[in-house]
Amino acid sequence: MDVRIPEIPASYDAYRDELRAFIAKHVPTLEMKPRSGLRVPDTAEDVEAQRNFVRALHDAGYRQDRFQAHDGDPFEQRILQQALSTVPEAAMGNPLVAGALKLFGTDDQKAKYLPPISRGDHIWSQLFSEPNAGSDLSNLKTRADLDGDVYVVNGQKVWTTWAQWSDYGYLLARTEPTPGPAGITAFVLDMKLPGVDVRPLREITGTTDFNEVFLTDVRVPVTDVIGQPGNGWKVTNMSLAMERSGIGGGGGGAVVGELIDAARLHNRRGRSAIEADDVRQGLARLAARSRIHRAIGHKIATRAAKGKLSVSDAPIGKIWFGELNLAMCEFALRLQGPRSALTEGDPAAYLDGVWQDRFLYARAWTIAGGSNEIMRNMIAERGLGLPKEPRGS
Ligand SMILES: Cc1cc2nc3c(=O)[nH]c(=O)nc-3n(C[C@H](O)[C@H](O)[C@H](O)COP(=O)(O)OP(=O)(O)OC[C@H]3O[C@@H](n4cnc5c(N)ncnc54)[C@H](O)[C@@H]3O)c2cc1C
User: Fold this and answer.
1) Going by CA atoms, what residue is nearest to atom 43 of ligand 1?
2) 76, 89, 130, 243: which one is catalytic?
3) Is 76 a catalytic residue?
4) Which residues contact 265 (CB under 8 A, 6 or more apart)?
5) 132 lines ligand 1 (CB under 6 A)
6) Overall CATH class of domain 250-383
């Protein structure tokens, strides 16, 4: 299997060390408890602390290519991405729009929006999903009607991560009379415009990561169209593919070493659980799946580096990660027996309920960026050329 990506030369060790030292020195301590997944702060103070951290990184020269008009040194970029992937404090908003702007934006849009994303000055969210348009996104109903040099936008979005703290939104709305994908246009939405009403949602995990966003007669300048009117589907598919490869390649936090620790600590009929055959079999199975996950990640990275990503690559990575992460969380809860019912804040909860929180969030990874069922449809239809599933009219 071709899974080779060029080794990072030893001459980059100093860059990596300096970056790690910089992160250790500047990373803020947030009021928000560290948790798995895409979690969003509850307080403006935490958001400001995150902004200041991202600014400090940027001003010290640590800038990610995906938010820049020009590409930097590829090895430095890999080191930067690896280092930041384990620092949730550096992840603010949903900046997928950067890819759309780089590929489809005008020079003015790139100059206006990319640098502030990179510096953490602007937080973005993604306004795609609607109550009846998630998997079936091309069914979206939000309308944008041309009125002189503005579009007047009306509709409702949902599951909008980070919207409560966002300065801008990457919006999809229907501008053309044509139904389905051909009628959709991508926009930059200034979230402070009159008529944008953000209503936070409280989730089972106890945090407020998502919002509903109601749009009533919002006047968006025509200069804020990304790409061409009616071309939004193409713009979107490109950014969604990026999101899926990000999820598939990501760590997600559930690791076999922590499960082994948990198995040592918990008892079964008076003996350490790690001595039970089924526990050791289960751990070995998860370790093997974890190794395969790493190989898939390397393969995707290799193909991406060579510009040879296939339509199935990112979906396979996303499905594998989502299912493995969920299996690990379920295993961790089984190890805890009745204690698995105890959650954060209960003095008897194992590790203050960290696995319970991961378990509650684990379903989200099987849905975010396109559910695993939809990913399988993509692999079957577009990757393997199998007959298409029947679709409603
Ligand atoms: C953590 C997280 C963050 C998110 N952030 C954002 C965001 O910032 N902005 C945004 O716009 N959206 C966001 N979403 C929403 C996400 O894009 C949708 O949840 C997703 O597209 C699925 O849509 P839905 O929830 O409407 O489910 P539905 O589409 O209603 O699906 C319900 C179930 O039916 C299955 N299903 C549907 N169609 C088919 C089919 N054809 N074949 C087989 N099975 C099918 C699905 O797999 C799923 O299990 C986020 C979701 C999550 C979990």
Assistant:
1) 373
2) 243
3) no
4) 272, 350
5) no
6) mainly alpha
